[in-house]
Amino acid sequence: MEKLQIDSKFADQSGEIMVVELGGHVDQSNSYQLERLFDNIIESGCYRVIVDFSKVYYMSSAGWGVFVGEIKRFRDRGGDIKLANMNPDIYEVYQMLEFYHILDDYPSVEAAAAAFKKDQEEIDLVIDEIEEGESEEAAAASPETPEQEESVEEIDLEEIVADSAETKDKEKSETTPISSTDFGKEAVHDFVPTSLHTDVKLADLPLPEKIKRVIAQNPLIGIWGIRKILRHEHFGRTKVGIFKLYKILRDLDLDTKAKRYRFYRSC
Question: Which helix (H) or strand (E) holds 82?
Fold first, then answer.
């Protein structure tokens, strides 16, 4: 059994992105080392990981299985695992098994780190827009100002009572008896629409509608960004599996960034 070579370091000064450098080959005999590695990273509280494959020359199905099985734990905590520097042989297997639906790959560690930062910027932008919109709604629904309350107190109640009595007398004088011939005639009145205002909270919307709201705010955000925003308190901390989310996006015909952008333009 060949021991898997593992080294780790942080990609940024804040310590939010960890780079794991693998060396050698990964198979059934040593894949447990990967599992132990991810356990230790989770315990450390770092949930954004870049795995550098530049020194890996073979990855068995057992090794890929660890990645597919572990990534859910990181994404449930708002993080992710990104792959970088795969050699052509490993990349061919990665493509053949269609793991690109689950794991993102990048040509370099620097590109993967930049993707993490871009994802966070997009998420922060959407959240800021949501919070700004809620602040504006709260301001519009704020209680009356002291000036408004003062003006209400200055209303002459005697004048209101007098006007009300005069109106009633006028209505009474204009009232005419209804004859039997009047029945059966259809009364025609001008329709005045009533303005109905309902404060529907984002958290109360059905999941597909929540997804549409996220896309309407930022159409270029990726599927993982959509999933993370749904877990924000404004959306009721909605939890959804990545495969279920992809299925909903496909049902909504929003499963690509191009389609999401067209939807955004139509809003």
Answer: strand 80-84
The 10s digit of each residue's pLDDT in 32-61 is 999 999 999 999 999 999 999 999 999 998
| Domain residue limits at 87 | 5-117
Which residues face 25 on adjacent strands?
Answer: 58
At 83, list the tokens.
């792959």
User: How far is 192 from 65, CA to CA, in rounded Å?
Assistant: 64
Q: What's 156's DSSP letter?
A: -
210 and 112 in one domain? no
What CATH number is attached to the domain comprising 37? 3.30.750.24
State how far the Cα of 234 lies from the Cα of 209, in Å rounded to an integer: 13
Cα Rg, the chain, nearest whole Å? 31
Q: pLDDT per residue over 186-229, tens digit each?
A: 444 443 444 434 456 888 899 999 999 999 988 888 887 888 88
Query: What CA–CA distance (Å, rounded) separates 218 from 143?
Result: 32
Distance CA 56, CA 58 (A): 6
Structure tokens at 137: 């709604």
